[in-house]
Amino acid sequence: MTEPISCVLFDLDGVLADYDREVRIATLARHLGRQPEAVRAAIYTSGIEDAADAGLLDTCAYLTALARRLGSPVGADAWVDARRAATRARPQMLSLAAGLQRRGITVAVLSNNGMLMAERWPAIVPALFPLFDRRAFCSAQLRATKPSPAAYLRCLKALAIPPRAALFVDDNAANVAGACEAGLAGHRFVDPAALLQTLGWPGPG
């Protein structure tokens, strides 16, 4: 880093946590008594998930849209259970983030997700809390999805952090490019060692 930073903004899936889409699909399919192919289509090819991520559907409208598509009621608890089953926090990354916080650096999360995720963060990824308490943001809350520069700028406004003082970390190159367009520093995540090198310090302690 050539400029001192006061905030590191992390992506969730693929950075702070491992995410298995197929586990999510299979778990929700079991809850609903539907075939995984139908659940996959409802979530990932219908456009419903994208609309929710963009803040165009609140939780009720999102679950109603999924239910209509699947022909079966979709409860919030079933959705949360499926998302939780598919998401595993990475202890090494949480240790790294905690180390940053001990050094006085604000740590936060920005994930492309809908309002249901925003409302149920602690139930879905409990290991992130209290470290990221009140600093975990979903794109739906911001009404902008990565890689739109608006997503990063609105998130940093909520954190009262200027873009030049923030580093964004994501495994998706397009999302990193969007952050850089918004004026943040960007790091495409590959592994913790490379991130530590970018940060310029030897370890999470």
Account of the protein in words:
By secondary structure, this protein is of the alpha/beta class. The chain has two domains: 7-18 and 89-199, 3-Layer(aba) Sandwich (Rossmann fold), CATH 3.40.50; 21-85, DNA polymerase, domain 1 (Orthogonal Bundle). 51% of the residues lie in helices and 14% in strands. The chain contains eleven helices and seven strands. It has helices at 21-32, 36-45, 48-53, 59-70, 76-86, 91-102, 115-124, 139-142, 149-159, 173-181, 192-199; strands at 7-10, 17-19, 87-89, 106-111, 136-138, 166-170, 185-188. The strands form two sheets. It has a five-stranded parallel beta sheet, sandwiched between helices. A two-stranded antiparallel sheet has the order 2-3. Helix 1 crosses helix 2 (36-45). The radius of gyration is 17 Å and the shape is globular. The chain starts with 6 loop residues before the first strand and ends in a 6-residue tail after the last helix. The mean pLDDT is 96.
